[in-house]
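Whether sequence alone determines local backbone shape is best considered at the level of individual chains. When preparing material for the folding task, we compiled for one chain both its residues and its backbone structure tokens. No coordinates are needed to read the tokens, only the vocabulary itself. For completeness, the protein is quoted in full, as a sequence line and a line of structure tokens:
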Amino acid sequence: MVHRCRHLDGRLGDDNLQSMIVGTVMRKIKSRTWKKQRYFKLQEDCMTIWYKSKKAGNAHSTFSVSDVETVREGHQSEVLLSIADEFPPDRCFTLVFRGRRGNLDLVADSADEAQSWIKGMKKLIENLENMGESEKLDQWICEWFKKADKNNDGRMNFREIRVLLKMMNVDMNEHHAHRLFMTADKSQTGTLEDDEFVLFYKMLTQREDVLRVFQDYSGDGQKLSLRDLEEFLRDEQLEEVDGVQQLAMELIERYEPSDTGTKMLKAMSIDGFLMYLASAEGSIFHPRQQSLYQDMTQPLNHYFISSSHNTYLMEDQLRGHSSVEGYIRAFKRGCRCVEVDCWDGPNGEPIVYHGHTFTSKILFKDVVIALRNYAFKVSEYPVILSTENHCGVEQQRVMAQHLNTILGDKLLKSTLDGKIPVSFPSPEELKGKILLKGKKIGGLEESLNGPVEPEDSLTGEVSDEDEAADIDEDSLHSNSLRRMAKVGYCCGSIKFIQFNSRSFPQKSKQRLSKELSDCVVYCKSVHFSSFKHSRIHSKFYEISSFTESKARKHLREAGAEFVRHNARQLTRVYPSGLRTDSSNFNPQEMWNTGTQIVALNFQTAGVEMDLNDGLFGQNGRCGYVLKPDFMRMSERSFDPEVPINREGYRPLSLCIQVISGQQLPKVNIKESSVVDPFVRVEIHGVPLDQAKQETRYIDNNGFNPVWYDTLRFTIHAPELALVRFVVEDYDKASRNDFVGQYTLPFSCIQQGYRHIHLLSKDGTSIPPASLFVHVRITNLV
């Protein structure tokens, strides 16, 4: 049971894996001064990396291969670059984990040892990615066996089984557990081995909820004939009638276990049926809409754009760590607009950090190198580099030089055809390009009609989104700010000064270098006066930025006008400077106005980033989502506060029956603790659609809780709605604990019986935790 390498790799003779199983002493590097030897080895399950200090003692740590997203060779992290003079690149590598977990930087004693681990880890990651559903189930069973087999003798007695049940979030009475144990103990040895444990696990995980659906459509109660399956797909899953027979045959071929006679009969057993429902095709998120399916030839401002705020920060905005890893992680999540705060640095090199705070500093040059290397790994569509520029003219020239020399052809330096355009090019036309957003001397017309004299410069506020300077005056009356002012607190890039009980931000004025100005083409930052002024005077390539509170004010006072403005131009909204903890605002409010660039702190987990991941989880995760047509035409009127007034208004009814949950993760580290789960379904959209409902909570069962609770919602603007499923552990005495969540666009929901594969607070998968639901969407007449 525990020797699963053959299953994973296909051949135990892999020298790299054998070397990893034997183990290797390597240096774990955290900084130039923190370099410690650790003994690393691959466990025999080929799924777990075990490591410990060389010093005496039994303390050790482990992590799963499934937690590792990729392996970088050589000096491809800030930490390893800092010790490049000490260790050659062929001995160095970095394990990059999923989610927000920090990297693991390692140095082997030789290049050969480093290669063994690099190739071996890549092989294991590839094997995991290529696993079928039944193989994943085998691996899951293997992992539980290993956790429960406390004395590592390859078998489990009843005492170990009882511990296992608690670990699996099951509070089963001892009599029932013992009956299952005795039934599985075919050899009557008082212990479970290999196939006996598999049998025990399958009895434990028997899905009565799925069996009920299966038997409702099965003619003989034993299998689904081709006709039975067609009827289920047509009537329940609402698959297209024309292709339903072909689909049924494909599902049998794909999911029915090959060692059953049922497949030969062109039929599906309960095992195959469950495998289909647990697959991507049985998921609530329509697979077709997870791939690139939208028209990418519309003007750039017709799309919502996945956007990051203070991208260089890994933590909060006061003392947080600045790192190029922030950019790499944002790009990995499909982000297409990143931010850089530039200040004059030593030795003539511009630096990036959150000004007037204790955040650490990185070189602007290193950020640009990260852009070159990582901007287009996940998505080939354009990246907008939003600059908050505090540099003097000399270091602005250095910034321009780095952008030109490092990015080369990737940096967009002119309009695509060299002519004066009347609208934005499309994401399709801008593939592989980086667009600089910032101040510009003059406009596109002047740039294309003839050169601007080098001595010309723009005097004014170089950065129109000097974030703390944009804190609304009404915010300055808050108690917290008054307290901060008294102690001379510095927030963001602005100092607050006590003056007659009022605090006023002070902005500095700087000059703009022509070289940096020339790097700005389609995204010229301008000060916003009013929607009327913008409608009459603004050029399409001029972009304004608002703090969240200013954007809310515009939404309250002129919602429809805000939407029309965003049909013509790009707008960026970013968090208030008061959010020193790097918390986020609700992005849905801003998407409701058609705002394209809603900048969030990607480093901060929570409902706001769940919504961002949910919206941009569609369309191939390319970072661009086409706005609804009523938000793309300036002649159309849409007020998010009054969606019923829009042309083509058609409300929908959403009915969700929450049936059951499967293998929910433990949230309390106590071995005896078992969760009391309940499910909350939230609708995020226009104000009229904002709603949430909950199921009952189930006592002491995180393994296979059953609800059959029905929740109903009315959706007035389905094109803008997101649906978030949240599982929490009920606690009547204190705050409920988060268990898992999943968020998706309403427009991407598959109807019928569907599984929802839950994600952690970090947005990473937590297999095999899931919910089983039935979804029906109908028109409201």
Q: What stands out?
A: The chain has 24 helices and 32 strands. Residues 480 and 578 are 9 Å apart (CA to CA). Residues 1-12, 459-465, 471-505 have pLDDT under 50 and may be disordered. The first helix runs from residue 5 to 9.
